[in-house]
Amino acid sequence: MPDYRRNHYVPVWYQRRFLGNDISGKKFYYLDLDPDVVVSGRRKYKRNALLRWGPRRCFYERDLYTTKFGQWESTEIEEKFFGRIDSVGSAAIEYWSHFKHPSADPESFKDLLLYMSTQKLRTPKGLDYLADLVKLSNKNMVLIKLQELQQLFCALWTECIWSITDASESKTKFILSDHPVTVYNKACFPLSKWCRGHRDPEIWFTGTHTMFPLSLEKMLVLTNLSWVRNPYESPFKIRPNPKLFRPAMFNFLQIQTGRSLTEVEVSEINYVLKRRARRYIAAEEKSWLYPENDIPTQHWDKLGNGYLFMPDPRSVTFSTEIIIDYDDRRADFFDEYGRKPWHADYKNKDQEGKEWETFHAFQGEFARVFGPRRRGRSFEGMSLDNEEDSPDYHAYHLGLERKFRKFRPRRIKKRR
What we know:
Layout: E1 6-8, H1 12-15, E2 28-32, E3 37-40, E4 43-46, E5 50-53, E6 60-62, E7 67-69, E8 72-74, H2 76-97, H3 106-122, H4 124-134, H5 139-148, H6 154-158, E9 160-166, E10 176-177, E11 182-185, E12 208-213, E13 218-224, H7 225-229, E14 256-260, H8 263-275, E15 280-283, E16 321-325, E17 331-335, H9 349-370, E18 379-380, E19 383-384, H10 391-403
Parallel strand pairs: 9-14
Antiparallel strand pairs: 1-6, 2-5, 2-15, 3-4, 7-8, 9-13, 10-15, 11-12, 12-13, 16-17, 18-19
Helix pairs in contact: 2-3, 3-4, 4-5, 9-10
């Protein structure tokens, strides 16, 4: 009989995706980043930091989701609410782990968004964040709010540039943390005010990336469109139209695939996962738990030379409007940031003009840094973008950086 009081905030089925194909009897190397201090008589010592545990012993707290009203206790949130979320989430993650163009499954898209948004809030770190956000200290009320706000991040993630990265060519694979839906902002260093305790850089900061490991070898990275179009502005700037809980349009064709990560890049990503974890991380191999030993720098804004999570801007289309025609001859209009025609900033010409220049400058910068080979490919027309730009097209992109030289990045000041 299931024990609904044993609450895995990182589900067992999801954990098993990080133990390879033959998971029978396999255990994680499970690292406690802040082991308890035990006092026994006159002796004081720390518990072992590194453990060998299977998925059922990892990432859980007893009664984390149990609601209590006087003498009455309920486990319905674990049994019914998270049961449904995990059911649809499991199938969606499997779909996205094997995504290939020109596939387009709207239900899997919606299910993944719902799962990710809930997963970000259901961990101990996420629940503390939610309690702070809604200004509540009562555990029962926070859990009720979790159900009400389960789609908190969905609209903004829908309007991001999606990139599915691949670690299959790296011996090092992705680790698992106690806060799997992780965010990274190059200006929000681990000791900054944005990252202390349960805090995370907000996803509506234009420079914030959202990263979610799908399996040992696949990771989904979501990047604000405004950051791809202008990565030279302040990463703390609020993205256009940050309103939550609203309709948003998603374009399957713009999903970037085909980026193969190097060994160093996988270790750098694992370093971010480790630094943004609350207390626990796990891995199939012991060495993966210590990515700081395998990266050239631990400077937060220099990981991947500053491009670690960036999609390839050469495979991003500069569109400004989406028009939907219905059978009854009605039409609906959205601009690229989800604004409707009556919005004051709908198709903001000044913003478009500036972003047109910075976006093309960034395309040129990417061409100079990474050469003609694309780091991600979207689906245009009836096929994927070219894997490598022709000499003429590469020269064109290099010329863009020279043309818009004044938009080269400025140094980001550390904020604490």
